Every structure is written in C-alpha cells, then in structure tokens.
C-alpha cells in the first residue's frame, strides 16, 4: 500500500523529503490532498518536513486537506503550532474559503472553532467564505456562517455583489430564502453595474428565485 511504499522511501537516504514537483508540491502536500492519513502522520513526525510549506499557488498542505474535506488530516495539521490555519493562497483565499466553496461542513466547523481563523476574510476579489457558500448553494454551510456575529451577511465583493446577489444569479433558491429571512440583508442592493439580485435571477432565467425576490419586493 501507499504507507509501505512511503516507509521504504523514507529509509532511502538519497531521497530529499523536501523536494517539490514542477507545481511546488511537497510529498506532504500531495498526501494531504489525497487524504492519506497514515502518510501525513509519518511525515509530520519528522523534523525535516515543513508542515506549512506552500506550493507555487500559495496552497499549503492544510489548504489542500481543507478544500478536499479531509477532516482527520486537517486536525493533524492544526495540532501543530507552526501551521497557520488562516494562511491565504495567491488569490487571497484561506482554507476556510475553499472549504466553504466545496461545502465541507465538518472542516468548516473545525476551523470556525478556532480563535485564529477569521470567518469573514475576503479574498483578492472581495469574496468572503459566506459568498462562496452562497454562490455554490451550500445551505447548511450558509447557516453556519450566519450564526456568527462577526460575519457580515451583506458583504459585497469587488464587483459590488453580495451573497444574495451571487445566490440569485446562480439559482440557489434555498440560500436565497435563508438570506431573505434576515433583516440585515438588503434584497434590492445594486452591484457596481446597478444590477439587483432580482435582475440577476431574471437575466439567468431562474424563475423560482425571481418569484421569491418579486414577492419580497412587493
């Protein structure tokens, strides 16, 4: 199996454990990405392995584990004091941001339980984890973020689009309903182009969402 191969490789003195591939991935990064818990543990037990080394895109092993929903690997990495749980990649996106996009509720819960993770950190495009969860229609994750007092449910990205605007433009009916139930979400907020959530729903042909927004408007 994979672990047996890794044991054999680790016993090879000529092998550089810190070597990277053409994308800057270390062995630890690749193991974290695939969720190989045994291999990750083996590597983290070594003093010559950097547990927080980023690849060419700025993605760390934690970033990969979080984005793929590997909860046990995430916990193993977060147990280390030299792993930054909120390190952003080159696009300004944190492990929490990627977990939100993919709807990894278990990983999100782990990260949100930490005081050193900002639940409302915007990326280079101004999108927060809530924005990503709303856009992708992850209702459970959206509710998790909305339960936090330090998350702005109406935060606009660099294009002026709020979580409601994004959810409306991608036909995420359930998320739209959740957001409209809040008094701190403006259903008529215009983006930088003057387009409202209703405009986006109508333009994209999402009739159910358009109806919900029209009813709220009336």
Automatic annotation (TrEMBL):
ANK repeats lie at residues 23-47, 57-79, 159-183. Pfam families: Ank_2, Ank_4. Keywords: ANK repeat, Repeat. InterPro entries: ANKS1/Caskin, Ankyrin_rpt, Ankyrin_rpt-contain_sf. Gene3D superfamilies: Ankyrin repeat-containing domain. It comes from the Eukaryota. This is Ankyrin. It comes from Choiromyces venosus 120613-1.
């Amino acid at each position: 199996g994979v672990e047996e191969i890794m044991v054999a490789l680790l016993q090879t003195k000529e092998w550089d454990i810190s070597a990277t591939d053409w994308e800057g991935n270390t062995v630890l990064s690749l193991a974290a990405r695939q969720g190989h818990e045994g291999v990750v543990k083996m590597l983290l037990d070594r003093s010559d392995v950097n547990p927080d080394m980023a690849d060419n895109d700025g993605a760390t092993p934690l970033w990969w584990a979080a984005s793929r929903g590997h909860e046990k690997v995430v916990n193993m990495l977060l147990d280390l004091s030299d792993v930054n749980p909120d390190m952003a990649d080159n696009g300004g996106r944190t492990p929490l941001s990627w977990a939100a996009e993919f709807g990894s509720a278990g990983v999100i819960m782990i990260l949100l339980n930490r005081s050193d993770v900002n639940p409302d950190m915007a990326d280079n495009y101004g999108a927060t984890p809530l924005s990503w969860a709303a856009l992708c229609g992850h209702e459970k994750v959206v509710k998790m973020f909305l339960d936090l007092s330090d998350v702005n449910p109406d935060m606009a990205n660099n294009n002026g689009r709020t979580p409601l605007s994004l959810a409306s433009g991608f036909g995420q009916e359930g998320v739209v309903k959740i957001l409209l139930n809040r008094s701190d979400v403006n259903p008529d907020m215009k983006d930088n182009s003057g387009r409202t959530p209703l405009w986006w729903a109508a333009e994209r042909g999402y009739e159910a969402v358009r109806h919900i927004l029209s009813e709220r408007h009336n």
